[in-house]
Every structure is written in structure tokens, then in C-alpha cells.
Amino acid sequence: MDPILGGEDFAFYEQRIPGCFAFIGVSHADWQTRYCVHHPKFNVDEAALPIGAALHVAMAFDSLVGGTVSV
Fold it and tell me: In the chain, how many domains are there?
């Protein structure tokens, strides 16, 4: 992933509750042009949604029972 200059307040939450931050790619490999999430032409390859959902479920499960997340 290329560096970005975005700002995020997530670190303030982690000062009180342990957590993690993940970037999940949602653009298709064949797309020539990709737009950022706040751009009006932003598009999502819906095939990525089950992967993101599985990641969130695995992290939630891991936090409840302990262990290592694997998706």
C-alpha cells in the first residue's frame, strides 16, 4: 500500500482498550483507476466483502476465546 496522509483517532481508543486497525482492499485488480473512499466515484468490488466480514468475525472470535486470528 502506498503511504497516505490520512488522519485517524483510533489510537485514542487503544489507549483504553487494546485493538487493531486493518486496511481491507476493496478494488478489483483489473480496474485501471481506483478512487479513495471519500471520492464520489469510489467503487467497491463486492467480492471483497466476504473476506472483510470473515476477518471481523475471526478478530471478534479471537478476542473472546484467545488464540491467533487466521482467515
Answer: 1
